[in-house]
Amino acid sequence: MYLNQKEYEMSKDPEYDRMLAGKLYVTDKIKEFNREWPGKRLVQRINQLPADHVHEIIALERRIFQGEHDNVFVQPPFEVDYGRHIKVGKNFYCNVNAVFLDTNWITIGDNVKIGPRVNLLTAGHPVDAGVRTDLLEFARPITIGDNTWLGGNVTVLPGVTIGSNSVVGAGAVVTKDVPDNVIVVGTPAKVLREITDADREYWERQADEYYLD
Hints:
By secondary structure, the protein is an alpha/beta fold. It has a single domain (11-212), classed as UDP N-Acetylglucosamine Acyltransferase, domain 1 (3 Solenoid). The chain is built from six helices and 19 strands. It has a seven-stranded mixed sheet, with no helix packed on it. Strands 1-4-7-12-15 form a five-stranded parallel sheet, with no helix packed on it. It is globular, with a radius of gyration of 18 Å. The mean pLDDT is 93.
């Protein structure tokens, strides 16, 4: 039985609270009732189901992906860290081998599509080796706006917000916030160009041809 977000905030678990607040913390000091094992076991169960057991997969995924569940599907196999800090909107599809490293909250809007082997990584480690070897780490939330598309092999780093209607090209490593209505590519990801009315008109013509055929 998972606690809801308000209950997490009142959990009397200082190390867990530090983690969700984006402060330095030590994983092994988090109390057992807040540890990651239930989510990992649930995802392991999902990943072991036959591919055609779609209804069973979706039912179990509802326990991982909080929020709207109208037409939501994540193609197994996938991985999580905690498996309880992920909120998704309606019409969400994610292809195979995604990593939702939800050490902090991952919030995904409506009508989002994610390609294969995408990494959403809220967890990070100090650059200084001395602090890092003391097992101190941090986690910062990731937010993905409505109507976005992340291509295959995209990696999104801690604390990043990706704006609505934007496209992240395959293989990009997103280290900074992405505005609305742009295409970003590369490592580190940079704005290639804005998405314009000409793009909309072109793709609407292509869609019209499809529906007329």
